[in-house]
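Thread: sanity check for a docking pose with adenosine-5'-triphosphate

Original post by kr_44:
Hi all, I'm comparing my docking run against an independent structure prediction. Below are the sequence and the ligand SMILES. Could someone generate the full complex and paste the structure tokens? I mainly care about where the ligand ends up relative to the chain.
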Amino acid sequence: MMLAVDIGNTNIVLGVYRQRELLHHFRLSTARQATADEYGILIYNLFNMSGLSVKNVEGVIISSVVPPLVHVIVEMCVKYIGKEPFVVGPGIKTGLNLRYENPREVGADRIVNAVAAIERYQCPLVVVDFGTATTFDCIDANANYLGGAIVPGIGISTEALYQRASKLPRIELEKPKKVIGRNTVHAMQAGIIFGYAGQVEGIVRRIKAEMNAPRLKVIATGGLAPLIAGETDCIDEVDPMLTLEGLRIIYDRNK
Ligand SMILES: Nc1ncnc2c1ncn2[C@@H]1O[C@H](COP(=O)(O)OP(=O)(O)OP(=O)(O)O)[C@@H](O)[C@H]1O
Ligand SMILES: CC(C)(CO)[C@@H](O)C(=O)NCCC(=O)O
Ligand SMILES: [K+]
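Reply from moderator J.T.:
Ran it for you. Here is the predicted complex with adenosine-5'-triphosphate included:
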């Protein structure tokens, strides 16, 4: 078995693979102050509850966009799983040709998504990941990683509204029946969901023009991908496990 760990700003997602098969996946909230022992308890319990044993884990791969948590999760792996993990970053083979001005600046999650998308879909393509931030990653016809765009995530955008405007409540992110909202909640839902879909369409349209690739494939991932994909026809595929798949592929290239 192999364990893949994606440390994001909101969630830590874990995937347990047997060869290419994802056996189980788990989602923890990202707690920046939690210790290696605390994460150890969670993982140990999740494994037991799923009929898995940490003893059967042959290797671990981690990607992180939260730098202070890397050593905590590495320490947890060494202490509770008995394995020194691979950490996506300098020294790890990804097979990706990064055209960013400073390749070390690109978020590891974006690199991992790009690796998975290149393996699973035809280039040129764009990956849109609806996480804490929404990221757009552009891959040209020769599988080069060109860069892309970073926008505030749907969660962040929604929180900003109720935190900064006294009369706006916290809302459930669900699609309203109409774009013309006749109460505060419906008006906010319409603005956020249809506005977000329009934003994605606008960015994708500009990317296609800039890359001169009108038939470029658009792959979406992240928790809120299905919600937005339902509101626009500019998304060709929703692939919820793309990041874990990318980690699995990179693990295989380095083991
Ligand atoms: N139903 C919902 N209503 C409101 N906010 C939501 C909802 N679902 C997710 N969010 C928020 O949207 C953001 C993205 O969540 P999601 O689970 O897609 O991201 P993630 O993959 O955990 O992100 P990261 O990898 O950055 O940790 C988070 O800030 C989350 O709190
Ligand atoms: C944009 C996020 C926060 C998305 O998780 C992450 O990929 C990140 O911290 N990236 C670093 C900046 C960059 O990718 O250019
Ligand atoms: K993510």
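Residues 51 and 239 are 26 Å apart (CA to CA). Hope that helps with the comparison, let us know if your pose agrees.
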